[in-house]
Fold each of these.
Amino acid sequence: MIVRLTAASLIAVATVALVGGPANAQQAASECKVETDKPGQLKTAKNALARAIAGIGDPGKAAADAVKELDKNGAKIRGQNEAGYNMILGQVYAWYLARPGQEHVVTRASLGHTVQPEATIDLLTAADSAFDAVERAVPGCAAETNDYRRPAWAPLVNAAAELINNDQLDTAEKLIKRADVIYQGSPHTSYFTAIMAQKRNDLPGAIAANKRTIEIITPEQAAKDEGTNQIRNQVMYNYAVLLAAQADGQSGDPQKATAREAVAAYKAFLDAYPNDEQRTSAQAGMGRMLAALGDTAAVATVFAEMLADPSKYTDSQLLEGGTNAFNASRFPDAARLFEAVLARNPYYRDALFNLANTYWSQNQWDKMMPIARRLAQVDPHNQDAWQLLAIAYKGRGDVAKAAKNLALERAMYDTAVKHVEHKNALTSRVAFTLFAHDGPKHTLRGTVENASAKPATYTVWFEFLDKDGKPVAAQDVTVGPVEPKKTAPFTVEVNQAGIVAFRYAPF
């Protein structure tokens, strides 16, 4: 007996408006000691670059003069001051990269190079190589070189963010890879890589990219910058949810291993952000993973707070908490949570189904009967609903039989048979894949299966209900023609505030 869950909502993702990042000049100066005035030829190149940066005269000619000086005396300068040579060369390339409209792959001659002038050069790769050489020679210079890397990196990642928002993922991925050439110290590239993987339904890729992002951002970094903290917050939550989704699709030892990782990830998120608005969803997800591991005692602690004050939780969170309790065989707790859902939303289809199953598990036939009956009214072309109703009557008949109440026994058994016959007579079956809410807009999607031997077209009348079960909108949808033993999809959209549930008429 399996309790159905509503589909978990897609993980929320957000892009971040990026900037080049502030320089920490004082810290860099104290840690980065690179001589750029000796030999004299290096100082000449440095002064030419300074004129380009200041905009004195013709900046382009000044930058080219710096490159020519480095080329003309390259061997001598490198022999005496390798770090200084690469620092000035990298800064010149960074200056070019910062120019509006600058192409990244150009001829060496266009930059002022006199050595191999006709060859092409990738400015991003060249700048990265120069700064890498500086950092190898003087590791304390990483902070300063990053201040030259980031301005070249930021426009690429900003452009990728816009492309991701427009689902132009292939182009965005190329920009992300280009951005990684010059700078790998930001969480944004792996964060956006995770978003792209999720959009492509690449679960392992999304998990790996989120994990990388978490490894990049230290708690200290998050504490210093609100934007970085927001990324860490969302990524830690996403990582746990994605691990849980992966565990849901596994079985046996692999499922248990992934579930343990998910529990640890949820706990890390809850420890880091105990007051976050996603806290209750994280608790419910962790409870589900603990249930998959068979840790019923731990599950109980997770949904104990839900039982103490259900008003703090949404319907979907209570539903998941109840499901966790059910899977842990804590049926009274599961029933209380499902009952709390139906007290707010009496026609919530999945809560009706789950509560009927829970009452069945406790042989509470009198309670099960009206819940199963309401489920059949909400979802009349669902064979499971009629099966549950038949089980409730059969159970009530067994009680009457034990009490030797032959009249009641016969009535209950006869009604149970009637519902089984009704279930078996259904020649069309309805299943639902989505019930989404976006303000006053509500979207319902599903399929109709034709179980008969002939093609058929169906017209289904839907009513959309408020929290009191009152119809506030209605619409029909025509599905078909549907071939025998095949299914066809449908979508119904309505605009009306206050909708929380739906039902449809038999057809």
Amino acid sequence: MQKLRVGVIGVGHLGQHHARLYATLPTSTLIGVTDQDSKRGQLIADKHRVRFYSEMAALLREVDAVSIAVPTSAHHAVAKRCLDAGVHVLVEKPITVTLAEATELIEAARACGRVLQVGHIERFNPAIRAVRSQINRPGFIECHRLSPFGERGTDVDVVLDLMIHDLDMVLSFHPGAVEEVRAAGVPVLSSTIDIANARIAFASGCVANFTASRVSTMRMRKLRLFQRDSYLSVDYQARQAAILRRQLGTNQRPEIFMEPAKTTDDEPLKLELEAFLHAIVSKTPPVVTGEDGAAALALAHQVLESIGSFVQRHSVEGE
């Protein structure tokens, strides 16, 4: 079994778990970690008995692949350095802040023949994996992603921080080209948009409604998908899903029958890292490509543009 030498760049809230899993996976050897906070970096390195690298360049000379879990604003610069060094990259979502930056990373990965995977972790959630094969031309999708406020992630707005998970997921159902985006949002506790809602219509006739908030009193990660003769309910947080089907019951009248989906207890991040390592070894495209990450980012920017128009329109009306 081929074991890849891996490192983690940024070992805060998310990166620490990348390090934890790489240290235990049979297909990887955790070489070391690096972080701008040297105390934090040394702590995580000591925990896994690996080296803390004060300089990223030194780490890149020792590894085949890295996970990048730095603030979004630094994704492009850090990932570009890694790809230029000939290292395979898994970068947390969103791929970058701008589409131009995303395009540059995609081209850099293609030029050096390295894997560029984007960390849209919900693709690996056992709940969605259990029902994905049942999804066929959805007509209406509703997504809710709510969280209490925290300082982490506030370097970008809630659309890039939270909603982008659901934008990527809906795009993975292949609903066709985007025909209309209508969105609204407001800042509440930060200087950027903290709560947002978007209604997106696709060429297939599918309409998706997205709500994302980081100023809620509770956490919610749910998707509801309606299609002809069935309704799928997914709770990402509980890793549970159910399929509700329309069938003929007594007296030949249509009734709804619920069928709980068979899910597993697999940790989504573990599945994501395993898929990343497999793509490298097998020389196959990753589950979530750079192009996928760019597509989700492009749609997120369409949502932000619509929010900007909404805010401007209502500020003018209020004068």
Amino acid sequence: MGGTVTITMEELARRLRLAREACGLKQEEVARRLGISRPAVAQMEGGQRKVSSLELDRLAHLYGREIRDFLAPDFSERDALTALFRRHSDLLSEDSAAEALRKTTVVAQELTNLEELLGLERDFEGLPSYAYGRPRTKGEAVRQGEEMAIKERRRLELGSAPIPSLATLLENLGIRTAQLALPDDISGLTLVDRGIGIFIAVNNREPQHSRWRRRFSYAHEYCHALVDRHLGGTVSRAAARDELVEVRANAFAAAFLMPEEGVRMFLHRLGKARGGRMEVELYDEEGLQRVEVRPRPGSRSVRMHDVVLLAHHFGVSRLAALFRLKSLRLVRVTEFEQLRAQEVSGIGRDIQTLLGFEEPEPEKARTEFRSRFLALAFEAFRREEITYGKLRDLVELVGVSKENMDAVVLYLSKNDRIFRK
């Protein structure tokens, strides 16, 4: 570590202990991860044993921290992972969820490091922060979410058209995004940290978290980034869907993805959701004549094929489109129940297939983040910004085998003069 260390061994030991406790890890678990004994970890945290550069790197990786956090003159106990565990302390008792949060934080940190090494700067300073207080009722939560969605669409000049890619939109706003395998109960999470910036991850575990649900999750987490980032991080779980901040985020996502004006215009083009009567003005050279036209019974009612078309147009699930129609009162309660029953029975899926909208889940969409992450890692290695050992750790972090990594390194060595030494 050389001359970069500006703190005493005792202070480093204290910081390591605080970081471990903040992550909810026991010394036994840390020892297992590092391949050393538990007493050795205790000695590190007691200041009786020196910590090698490699060990410190692995500890930082495990705790979702930067090495420089441990060596800087000042040490902050609060970081992205700590904020998540403090807000969602129940997750500490769930090993799979806690581990998923640790890994996600590490991915966010490593992505930030790679972009900084390659000179790729992020700027989310222009992102607004809405000063809504915590909603007191579900009605207030829905109102706040829908109001924010309208304001954001107007600010971003999106009009009432569908949004092609939520991930691209967020990236353009300076927010880092990722699709990762998370526990089924977690649809997504938002990290806010001075070192990471804003990072949104959504669950890509199939089949529960389909591409349509991931779009909704991106919009849901974007709401948290806009109004809840003072919390330092949020985890969106099915078990907490009735919490008012989650209701607000769901209302935002629905209105952001399916703006009321856009939904009404789309149904208008289908000749649906108008009033029961329509007045037509006729001009016959003698004067104006007004005629009331009564549509045939049922001709204005929304049918399942309309729901399929609407869902496809806005890039959402059929159920999301159906609930949006209900919230906008474009279908009556009885119609909603009938359509929902048809969806449950599989009619909606059959119509979607018949219309040619049933597309297999593109593997590219699920692995897009991994491909981007690996491209950054290999470029940093090519530029000699990271070592082979660091590249191996990064590759394993996103689930790529060492054999595949070696094949890429071999390719680079044959096609880039920087390796011909």
Amino acid sequence: MRVAGFFCDTLEPTRRDIGPGRPGRKLPGRTAIPEGRYPVAVTFSPRFGRWLPLLLHVPMFTGVRIHAGNTAEDTAGCILVGKNARPGMVLDSQIWLRRLVKRLGERPEGEGVWITVRDS
């Protein structure tokens, strides 16, 4: 299932210019992941106690999940989903996370899922 177009808003921590030959430095839990296209697997998260999307092969990062939360302080370096109705926040995050996980579960078995992360 290819989802074209807008699904929901997202929120990440501060974007920093990190990586080989770049001036920024990673601050654990407070740095957005680099732009790129990443495969996604839905796996059980012991931290959250539920099945959540996990981004794979993110340079300099491990355990990047898509989960619920409202502000950058809730991200711990992950991606939050919701509705951007207030500056610096996403709202109705639990609703949007349920919708996302449901949609991922409805795809044909074996079909890959990818996410493209872009600085906006």
